[in-house]
Design goal:
alpha+beta, three-stranded antiparallel β-sheet, 31% helix, elongated
Length: 249
């Protein structure tokens, strides 16, 4: 069995209003959010098929004001392993041929959050002059001030060293690369790492042809509806699979 797929899948049931900047593992997604309902996921699938467009509606905050550009995404997880992805992103997926993806999508680069943070901030050292009264108001007495390395001035005030941490200003190339970075931790168990998601991204919308759609996955009870819908819209040679079939294969 291949460790990658020649069909790239997009799931239409991603949970709404997820603050991805605070998500370290896939399993974190389900703490306060749930995938969209099957009905809503089906409607989104039909909108994608009607428009022949996968819209770039996703963005992720990396740190502070550093965010990705808007993107759309797919995964090359092998078919047999998609059931794990389903837990987080819903019961409906549309598959695209690999050749339609290679020209405009790029694999995501996964990196631990601590390394990503260290390289996206700058630390600016400065001195702030504070009076004894101002320090006392925040619970710092003279003894604490001296032990903390504050320098007492002749006028009785203190030179207080301050480190300001702020996001780095990125050039165009760095900003573009940033859009293909995904912070994660690593682990062996399912749900322990975003690395398991094998994500590919495209900045801006993905416009596709009907021939680029190779497969659709829905629950068994929606198979007939989707087959009829594809026929009326002129989508030919699209394999429609059920999760029940995949789990038995």
């Amino acid at each position: 069995m291949n460790y990658y797929s020649k069909i790239f899948w997009h799931f239409t049931g991603s949970p709404k209003d997820v603050d991805w900047g605070n998500i370290n593992y896939p399993k974190d997604i389900l703490i306060n959010k749930s995938p969209k309902s099957i009905g809503e996921s089906i409607e989104i699938l039909k909108l994608i098929l009607d428009s022949r467009k996968l819209k770039a509606t996703c963005s992720e905050k990396i740190i502070a004001s550093n965010t990705t550009e808007n993107f759309c995404c797919v995964t090359d997880i092998p078919l047999i392993n998609l059931k794990n992805h389903r837990r987080y992103y819903g019961d409906v997926a549309i598959g695209f041929s690999s050749q339609s993806i290679y020209s405009s999508f790029h694999p995501v680069f996964y990196i631990p959050r601590r390394l990503l943070t260290n390289n996206l901030v700058e630390r600016i050292e400065s001195i702030v002059v504070s009076s004894e009264e101002e320090l006392n108001n925040i619970g710092i007495d003279e003894d604490t001030a001296m032990r903390s390395g504050f320098e007492k001035r002749k006028d009785g005030r203190y030179n207080v060293p301050v480190t300001e941490v702020k996001p780095k200003k990125l050039n165009d190339l760095e900003q573009n690369i940033l859009s293909f970075l995904k912070s994660t931790e690593y682990g062996d168990d399912e749900g322990d790492s975003f690395y398991q998601e094998r994500e590919w991204r495209k900045i801006q919308d993905f416009d596709f042809n009907k021939e680029n759609v190779t497969g659709i996955i829905v629950p068994q009870e929606y198979i007939e509806d989707i087959i009829n819908y594809l026929s009326t819209k002129g989508y030919n040679n699209v394999n429609v699979l059920s999760w029940e079939f995949i789990e038995k294969s």
